[in-house]
Amino acid sequence: MTTKHHSICVHQEAMHALPLEGYVRIKKIISPTGPIPVCKSTWWAGVRSGRFPKPVKNLGPGITAWKVEDIRKLFDETVTTIDESTFN
Please, are residues 15 and 75 in contact by the beta-carbon 8 Å criterion? Predict the structure, then answer.
């Protein structure tokens, strides 16, 4: 249980490193440097299934990014779910 809590704290620190507004690329969203602890293939499967937010692709040729507010909302929902399941 302690390890899980420690892991959540590290991801919260990564979340605070994101800009307050704008767009972020996948490397700033997922592990090992981002706040969401999943690999790239899991992330894209989640995007396809609707579990994770859809990217914005019209920013330029070959550029895929996500709105920071969508990532923050996802993170807030995930932390709330983890906190609730920890205490139930």
Answer: yes
Contact 56, 23 (CB under 8 A): yes
Mind listing the pLDDT tens digit for each residue in 26-81?
999 998 888 888 899 999 999 999 999 999 998 999 999 999 999 998 888 876 55
d(Cα 42, Cα 21) in Å, to the nearest integer?
25
Q: How many domains does the chain have?
A: 1
Backbone Cα Rg of the chain: 13
Tell me the residue range of the domain where 12 lies. 2-87
- State pTM to two decimals: 0.74
Q: H/E element holding 47?
A: helix 40-49
